[in-house]
Model the fold of this input.
Amino acid sequence: MKDTGRSAAERPAGVIAGFGFRTGASVQSFEDALAQAAQGREVTAIATLSDKAATPAFADFIRATGLPLYRVTQAEAQRMDTVTHSPASQAARQTGSVAEAVALAAAGRGARLSGVRVISQDRKATCALAVVEASETCAPDKTSPDKKTSNAFNQGETS
Done:
């Protein structure tokens, strides 16, 4: 997994795709949700809850994208105001939308959602995009290897 080892406090720049998902979500679930949310926009990082990041299908998905992963704690996610208010998400994770909350938490102060979260066709994964405006971005991490920022998902292709 291309994990940055960074918490949400160390904000990435650009467009962050946040994911929430159920047990049984597949790589295809994540690909579908990302393709729907991104609609051809370049995604620069991915975020999810810390306790879900090592899920095998999600780890495979992260490897396939080549994008950095930001792990968001449940406490960080709970502090975010989400547009969507899912009763299931609220009961399970005390946030209206895990995808929206982790995207916003990873993106940091000044970020905004590009829209509400989308749901994969199999209804097992959700994805929301948070945008960090140029004036709000941090300088890239010079100590980590170059991150791949162009991939099939960023170019609107799906498998």
